[in-house]
Design goal:
The protein has about 240 residues and is of the alpha/beta class. Helix content is about 40%, strand content about 20%. Helix 2 packs parallel to helix 9.
């Protein structure tokens, strides 16, 4: 296990202590989900269990140990229709093309050097009219040692995400900031304190605050956030290419 993979594994374990945060993500994206869903980069299943409550899921990741964890946790769930290994940097399996009404790609694209090619691959997995649900780290100026240790190659601004989606033929349904208050925590921990891991106690405290933060964020102008959520739709007339 290399150092980046080690940090990612530890971070996924820490984020298991923030189930309300993951519920918040799913609450934001569930209007755009349709059966079946492909989850790209499922990790150890922090989102998977919640997505399974929405409908049929196929889960993928490049890390076989993560897939073993997901299979162990959710293998008997009737909505889990498959778990398979796939590296988003490679072309998708031919048998999966055009099969999904939704593809969820959360905190994955920032790890990929050729993110435009990765998006083209994700588009090919969608049925005509299907939707890509993309969550990526936002605000280029917020890039700090936390990002570096996780293997993030970049953070995104809204225009970059818009150009990427349009460049791969998606119709943009929505691009919005998410988790306004997370910006402060990421900045203090990564930029000011130069930490390489999120503190577990802070994550647990943040998790308790999520219900209140969800309510507050509804009334705030979405001019900033720790992440961007983008919804791109494949043209109804387009095939699996």
């Amino acid at each position: 296990m290399d150092e980046i993979e080690k940090v990612n594994t530890i971070t996924l374990s820490i984020l298991e202590e923030a189930p309300m945060y993951h519920r918040w993500i799913v609450e934001r994206i569930k209007p755009y989900l349709g059966d079946p869903v492909l989850e790209v980069g499922c990790g150890t299943g922090n989102l998977t269990g919640l997505l399974l409550q929405q409908g049929e899921i196929v889960a993928t990741d490049f890390n076989p140990s993560y897939l073993e964890t997901v299979a162990r946790k959710f293998g008997r769930h009737p909505h889990l229709k498959g778990v398979f290994r796939w590296d988003i940097r490679l072309p998708p399996p031919a048998e999966m093309r055009g099969k999904f009404r939704s593809v969820v790609c959360s905190n994955v694209l920032e790890h990929v050097e050729e993110d435009d090619k990765a998006l083209a691959g994700l588009r090919s997995l969608l049925r005509p009219g299907g939707r890509l649900v993309l969550l990526v780290p936002a605000l280029k100026w917020l890039y700090n040692p936390l990002d570096h240790e996780l293997g993030h190659l970049r953070r995104y601004n809204k225009k970059e995400v818009e150009d990427l989606l349009l460049g791969q033929g998606f119709r943009i349904c929505q691009i919005t900031f998410f988790n306004f208050f997370g910006v402060l925590g990421w900045f203090v921990n990564g930029t000011v304190l130069r930490r390489r891991l999120l503190p577990l106690k802070q994550v647990r405290a943040f998790n308790k605050l999520v219900p209140a933060l969800m309510k507050m964020e509804r009334f705030l102008p979405r001019v900033m956030g720790q992440s961007l959520i983008a919804i791109g739709e494949k043209d109804q007339a387009e095939g699996s290419h």
